[in-house]
Amino acid sequence: MKTIEVTPTDDIQRILDALDEPAEILLHKGIYRQKIKIARGNITIKGESRDETIISWDDYARKRHADGMEYNTFRTYTVCVTGENVRLENFTIENSVPDPKTAGQCVALSVNAKTFSAADMRLLSTQDTLFLAPFPDDLVVRYAGITDEGYYDGFIPLDELFMEGNSLHCFKNCEICGTVDFIFGCAEAYFENCRIVSLNDGRDITYISAPAHSLKQERGFCFTGCSLEARGAEKNSVYLARPWRDFGKSVFIDCKAGEHINAALFDRWNDTYRNKTARFAFYNLDCGKKTEPVSWCRQLSRAEAAAYKKLCAAAMKKLGL
Question: Domain 62-318, what architecture?
Answer without folding.
Answer: 3 Solenoid (2.160)
